[in-house]
Amino acid sequence: MTLAGTAPASELTELSATTIAARVRGRAVSPIDVVRAHLERIEQVDGRLGALSAVRSKEALHEAEELDGRDDLSSLPLAGVPVAIKENVAVGGLPTLHGSAATPRAPAGEDDELVRRLRAAGAVIIAKTHMPELAIWPVTESAICNTRNPWDAKRSAGGSSGGSAVAVATGMAALALGSDGGGSIRIPSACCGIVGVKPTPGLVPLPGGAVSHWYGLSVAGPMARTVDDAALMLDVLADTKDLRKVQNVGERLHVSVSTRHPMLGARVDADVRGAVRCVAEALRRHGHTVEEANPPYPVLPQAFLSAFMAGIAEDADALHLDAERAEPRTRALMRNGRWLRSRRMARDVQTSGASRRLRAWMAGRDVLVVPVLAGPPPEIGRWWGQRWLQTLLAAAAWMGFAPPWNIAGCPAVAVPVTRSASGLPVGVQLVGPPRSEARLLSIAKQIETSLR
């Protein structure tokens, strides 16, 4: 039943998560209508973009009906908000495929803790989202999916949380959960024109209750269309209450700006450099001290590569991956990772010299503004079928700005800024010292407001 004054379905899918929750809490709109509108949106667009691996149509509507009858609806921060969950996080009753044709198909017996926290806040889990095999690549392409960019369906949506980014950008979900072991939240957020937050390790629990993943590289975090929405979801995921109300920046900040690529010889597109300059000028107008300064990026990312490959091998073994059905380049990375593990050559990245140098450099400033990506997303299939080393080198030239901050354990926020000459979104990355999420979100909100 539709309540009097309820917005049309198309409008409900365009509302922010904070607005949806406020209207549901105030009973101005029914969570049933909200979920139904998002399911209709999924029917309209996902066949073309391939973002979702499973849609919980009946279950989501049933949960929305139960939610509508709750006495405590007015107290739920995410009341009635449709949320999509990345494929590497367990949702009870659905298999956790990890983007692979080689993983077991048995359904999960229960929700992951992150999913439980979202449900406890009133969210409705509407779908699971595609990712590349074992979250390895910065594009969401695999033997079972090609997730396309909503701004240009010939191009990638980015990865590894590509399905999550597309779901949010197109209104199939108001929020999505992603994970980031080298840019996997920030890269697709930048490709699709949304906000993505990579938090400090330890702020948000890792999927599966893991103490560490990929030797300290990985975190889980929110993906949203607005900074306020991302902040609210981060608060829920972290089980805190101090991030959801984004504060005004009440101080003059020390802002560093850099467009120098971490990879020697790699170039950065003019559109990307322009977006960074645009943000720098906006922050300067707000009275912040802005200077050019280049981070001490590692010349050879040994700590990252060792942790990355050993982590892939660890995942493959824990998931009982059927190696014969895995992609050839995944098998190669598994072999390399097992070799590194057998010689104890992979260590927690937070203890590496590269991590200490980056954190020490960040300690002398409040925020760093850098690109997320060096250029536009590649066309679908450009790297498909290549050997693992070719793919890694090509990917590094494109997304090399992201992994250093996983090594450092620093939080980072991807913020959409403008569009390129071809109409594709261009975002920047705000990086801060560990546990500076509140400040980064405040700066992100200041940028979002300035560039509207």
Helix and strand arrangement:
Layout: H1 9-12, H2 17-25, H3 31-49, E1 52-55, H4 57-68, E2 82-86, H5 113-120, E3 124-129, E4 148-149, E5 152-156, H6 162-169, E6 175-180, H7 186-192, E7 195-198, E8 219-224, H8 227-238, E9 254-257, H9 270-285, E10 289-292, H10 302-318, H11 328-342, H12 353-362, E11 367-371, H13 388-399, H14 403-408, E12 412-419, E13 425-431, H15 437-450
Parallel strand pairs: 2-3, 2-6, 9-10, 9-11
Antiparallel strand pairs: 1-3, 4-5, 6-8, 7-8, 7-12, 11-13, 12-13
Helix pairs in contact: 3-4, 6-7, 10-11
Architecture per CATH nomenclature, i.e. the level-2 architecture of the largest domain: Alpha-Beta Complex
How many distinct folded domains?
Answer: 2
Query: What fraction strand?
Result: 5-15%
Instruction: Look up the CATH topology of the largest domain.
Output: Amidase signature (AS) enzymes
What order do the strands of the largest sheet run in, or round the barrel if closed? 1-3-2-6-8-7-12-13-11-9-10
**Class from secondary-structure proportions:** alpha/beta
What is the residue-averaged pLDDT? Answer: 96
Largest sheet properties: 11 strands, mixed
Whole-angstrom Rg: 21 Å
Order of helices and strands: HHHEHEHEEEHEHEEHEHEHHHEHHEEH
> What is the straight-line distance between the termini?
36 Å
Name of the CATH superfamily of the largest domain: Amidase signature (AS) domain
Specify the number of helices. Answer: 15
The CATH class label of the largest domain is: Alpha Beta
